């Protein structure tokens, strides 16, 4: 019995250690964080906080969409998703992929229109409570 408990505890520790190592790899590779030369304690804490919150948001997003896309795919998709101003408050959305489709389905959004007026963009981005 003691061996089983020890084994389960070891696996949990190993899993936790691996997830921490994976998180550091994500921070270094996906967010391209490099040593930042800050000298004050406030700046060091602020830099760490920004990196940590970014990782936390990406991990939560990864979980919410069912882990069907990697953090790399999510980051690349969100970085590519943009719009261009056309004329008279109309915007052109020229990027769409599987990650955006998954987010649409998960969060109940409709981002399928290639051209949208500003009023519709504001309606979509307005906070609404979702049951996830």
Structural topology:
Blueprint: H1 2-29, H2 41-64, H3 71-80, E1 83-85, E2 90-93, H4 98-107, E3 115-117, H5 118-125
Antiparallel strand pairs: 1-2, 2-3
What does this 3D model show about the protein?
The protein is mainly alpha-helical and 132 residues long. The protein is built from five helices and three strands. It has a three-stranded antiparallel β-sheet. Strand 1 (83-85) and strand 2 form a beta hairpin. The longest helix is centred in the N-terminal third of the chain and has 28 residues, at 2-29.
Largest beta-sheet characterization = 3 strands, antiparallel
Give the CA-CA distance, first to last residue.
39 Å
H-E order = HHHEEHEH
Radius of gyration: 20 Å
- Global shape: globular
> Average pLDDT across residues?
78
Structural class by SSE content: mainly alpha
Q: Which percent band covers the strand fraction?
A: 5-15%
Number of helices: 5
Strand order within the widest beta sheet: 1-2-3
Q: Tally the beta strands.
A: 3
Uncertain regions spanning at least 5 consecutive residues: 1-7
| Helix content estimate | 55-70%
């Amino acid at each position: 019995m003691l061996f089983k408990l020890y084994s389960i505890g070891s696996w949990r520790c190993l899993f936790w250690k691996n997830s921490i190592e994976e998180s550091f790899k994500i921070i270094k590779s996906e967010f391209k964080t490099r040593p930042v030369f800050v000298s004050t304690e406030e700046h060091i804490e602020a830099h760490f906080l920004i990196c940590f919150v970014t990782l936390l948001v990406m991990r939560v997003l990864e979980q919410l969409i069912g882990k069907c896309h990697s953090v790399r795919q999510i980051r690349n998709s969100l970085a590519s998703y943009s719009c261009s101003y056309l004329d008279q408050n109309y915007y052109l959305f020229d990027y769409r992929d599987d990650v955006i489709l998954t987010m649409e389905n998960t969060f109940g959004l409709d981002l399928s229109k290639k051209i949208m007026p500003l009023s519709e963009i504001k309606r979509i981005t307005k906070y609404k409570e979702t049951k996830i």
